[in-house]
Amino acid sequence: MARTGFCDSRQLLDLHMTDDRPVPLRTWANSCVLRERRVFAEGEEVAPGQHYKPAQESRWVRRIPISAEDGIIMDYAPQHESGPSDVYEEEALLKYLNRLPGPPSLRELMPELLRREMEVAISKLGLLYDKTYAWDIFSDMMRSQLLCTLPNADLPKHFSDTTRAILVDWIIQVHEVFQFSEETLYLAVHLMNRALRLIKVSISGLQLLGVVCLFLAAKKEECLLPEVSELCYLMENTYSKKQLLRMERRVLTGLKFDLYHCPPLHFLLISASIARCSDKVVWMARYLLELSLLEGHCVVYLPSQLAGAALRLARSILQEAPSPDGEMAWCIASSIHIGSEAALLSIMQIMATAAARAHARETRATFIKFSTIQTLHVSMHPALKAAPGLLGLSCPQT
Amino acid sequence: MAQESAVQYEPVAEIGGGAYGTVYKARDRDSGQFVALKSVRVQTNQDGLPVSTVREVALLKRLEQFDHPNIVRLMDVCATLRTDQETKVTLVFEHVDQDLRTYLEKVPAPGLPIDRIRDLMQQLLCGLAFLHSNRVLHRDLKPENILVTSRGQVKLADFGLARIYSCHMALTPVVVTLWYRSPEVLLQTSYATPLDIWSTGCIFAEMFRRKPLFCGDSEVDQLGKIFAVIGLPAEDEWPTDVTLSRQNFSPQTPQPITDCVPEISEKGAELLLEMLTFDPLKRISALNALEHPFFTE
């Protein structure tokens, strides 16, 4: 597949790294960090990545904690490599520089590592049978997701974000009634976001539009479909079956049959699997991700960014005791977000604010869904109310 | 919406009866461009548009996002209601004036130079490799739906349509050509991406010959014509799950392929034989065909 040229992994990474070319390590290290970080002295940034042979990839991996020299990660530097003297490092560097024609760059090593992890994660999740294609699939996801955002969060004049949130909340409830897969929900809301901007509907037709988007998402994703009469019943027979099917044709024509979506949930599960996140973190992240469906401003962000932000926020909310392996795995998983720090932070702020007031809102379907024992009661977690505080925002009064 | 699409595209001429319905050349009033309109009538029941149609057209749209140079552009799709039981799905494709059939007919006497054939084949295989890597079978590859632009660019058309049309197919009394069908399709056994490679092989030979390679008038006759060239497959190669038995055909030994395609080069003949291999599992894939020495000789 790679040979056909659609899934070039190099291009993929360039996507994120073009702006950071001069200091690859620094941006890489930055993306691993959650709290304050120390400013690097010149030279330090380049040195550590360079004095290791490409064959010794595992050693290179282990070096990360030291090379990053960050508050969090420093503590886990393996004992045998703890010689802290810069002199020693410089010597080693010189030795290697003299011997090697050209040291491998991080840009060459990083994808290889991520690629291996990706293969394991994708096959573990059962997303495919042959892991040879894992990286191609992931590269394709990274590229295709660019088509899954909207240019702005503006809604047609007579709709407000509140109206939209109420509609999404209702779709979430109907989705639960039919026990559809999660992908169907994300697809339905994505179709609704696009359809709202593409076809003219009145306020009274809004619910019909919502249900049709869910119906179409189900036609794309599900094996068992609800009957049209059931859907009409759920809307208290406000609309006839004929009206519903007419809306279906309008939406399909409006969307030009383009029903593709790259669900953020897939990015979340892949990243969580690479990062060895605990079940609790994953459920918390899924909760935050689903809350983002209700937020009109989130439509401009990439699915991978939404997923990355949800996972990062979930980790800082739950504050689980870190382990060296866990931190390292987290760094690898985070490397797909190089260059999107600002976006991730904005999304985390939206999610944190939403999560802090979720229990008190009118649109509570997601809050209730994630308060059950199966979801480890994540939506009831006490730390959620203080979540905005973690990001330096003020917490809402309750 | 029905009016809208009728207004936007002004029919200019009937291009021809495709196997599944009439195709129109039309002018897009907005851009002035010519387009090809293909309509499918699908039965709609109380559940609205059938799942298969929704998924297949969505897949065509998805392929469109890759903007592959050897795939015909799908510019627009619309769904309109005809009657309560029938919805018309109109696919709007870019219009290319010339297909490979007319292109080959126009070639003067000594035939196409081999470099030109190499270029056409490479583009054709590129498009096919793209479809196959996206799990799409063409199923009906023939010179009529391989388009050649005035600048010599090859574009595959009509791929994947077979499945969209399938529910409607039984009603159409149109005979679909057998000439490019692979043995496994003719024998009605299971088939996958190799079926398109067989058709590509037939087309490859046709580029040299400027006339079709196997012109059968029934399934059995078509198979007979194939075996007359590639030889009757061995007993153990014959698929077990088919009704047509090997005994129906007279034993034949393979003919040198250069008897049928005298103009072909040595490497070209090798590639052609790898495409016209009876066993679909042994047939070369589109990706591997692109790596064949024929393209570098």
Number of helices of chain B: 11
Which structural category do the helix and sheet elements of chain A fall into? mainly alpha
Helix coverage percent of chain B: 25-40%
Superfamily at the CATH H level of the largest domain in chain B?
Answer: Transferase(Phosphotransferase) domain 1
Radius of gyration of chain B: 20 Å
Task: Write the CATH fold name of the domain at 101-147 and 263-397 in chain A.
Answer: Cyclin A, domain 1
The oligomeric status of these chains comes to: heterodimer
CATH class descriptor of the domain at 101-147 and 263-397 in chain A? Mainly Alpha
Q: What form of chain B results from the Cα inertia axes? A: globular
Helix and strand pattern of chain A: HHHHHHHHHHHHHHHHHHHH
Which CATH class of the largest domain in chain B is shown?
A: Mainly Alpha
Rg of chain A is: 23 Å
β-strand percent of chain B reads 15-25%
CATH architecture of the largest domain in chain B: Orthogonal Bundle
Percentage of β-strand residues of chain A: under 5%
For this structure, the CATH topology of the largest domain in chain B is Transferase(Phosphotransferase), domain 1
What does this entry look like structurally?
The complex is a heterodimer of chains A (398) and B (297). By secondary structure, chain A is mainly α. Mean pLDDT of chain A is 77; it is low at 1-85. Among the domains of chain A are: 101-147 and 263-397, Cyclin-like (Cyclin A, domain 1, Orthogonal Bundle); 161-255, Cyclin A, domain 1 (Orthogonal Bundle), CATH 1.10.472.10. Helices cover 58% and strands 0% of the residues of chain A. With 297 residues, chain B is an alpha+beta fold. Chain B folds into 2 domains: 9-94, 2-Layer Sandwich (Phosphorylase Kinase, domain 1), CATH 3.30.200.20; 98-295, Transferase(Phosphotransferase) domain 1 (Transferase(Phosphotransferase), domain 1). Helix content of chain B is 36%, strand content 18%. Chain B is built from 11 helices and 7 strands. Chain B has helices spanning 2-8, 51-64, 100-106, 114-133, 161-169, 183-186, 194-209, 219-230, 257-260, 266-275, 286-290, and strands spanning 9-18, 21-28, 34-43, 74-83, 86-94, 146-148, 154-156. In chain B, the strands form 2 sheets. In chain B, strands 1-2-3-5-4 form a 5-stranded antiparallel beta sheet, sandwiched between helices. A two-stranded antiparallel ribbon of chain B has the order 6-7. In chain B, α2 (51-64) runs antiparallel to α5 (161-169) and α4 (114-133) runs antiparallel to α7. Classes of the chains: A mainly alpha (398), B alpha+beta (297). The A-B interface holds A 1, 3-4, 6, 144, 147, 215-216, 219-220, 225, 227-229, 241, 244-246, 248-250, 252-253, 256-260 and B 1, 44, 46-49, 51, 54-55, 57-58, 60-62, 65-66, 76-81, 87, 126, 129-130, 133, 287, 290.
